[in-house]
Amino acid sequence: MKKTVVLLLLVLTTQGYSQFAKSMFSKDPIINLENWQKQRLYFGYYLGFNSFDFKFDYKDVVTEDIQVKKTTGFNVGVVADLRLQEYINLRFEPGLYYTKRDLYYPNFESKNDFFREVNSTYIHFPLLLKFSSLRTGNIRPFLVGGLSTTLNLSSNSKSKDDNFQQKFRVKSWTNAYELGFGIDLFSEYFIFSPSIRGVFGIGDELIRDNVTAENPNSPWTGNIDSMKSRAILINFTFH
């Protein structure tokens, strides 16, 4: 029974992809959803993946940088698209992003000291301009760019503990600018838009460790001038 179901799904998927490819790339394709993007306002949703990093700037020259191990996270959100003119759209793409980064500090021996796991759950609010090219058949490439603000639900910003208690803290709200490109593929019933985008943090998001008489200078945050997030986003949008 399982083999039959799998075989049926493969057949349906192959036929669906064949019809989709034919409508996209044939010599004289049928123009799908010809008037769709002439709407003043339309909505959609997206699913995707992310890879977040940290960029460190130091006060003093260091012999070894803090090492960041990146992982692949996931994105999910909605899209509101406002048509400003034929080739320019204003897009609002709020979404939920989950990611994890592992930090390895040099010059420590104990794992409690050299390792910090940074889990982040972001509510992401990007406001973007989309610049589309001329449509060729059922294909329309585009560039996108703009600003975003992000709320980190896992920031530990209100925690009184710091790295001396194995607690890594960042600010709750951060800002960034975003640049990317993608392509609109018009099928018979919907628009599929894969895209790739870079996110570049603007402000320092690190919360320094508490300074006390016993710990006047933190070995984890004392020499860091700024710490900014960077990311690559791959989204698959459906309208």
TrEMBL record:
Domain Outer membrane protein beta-barrel span(s) in chain numbering: 39-205
Name of the protein in question: PorT family protein
Organism: Flavobacterium geliluteum
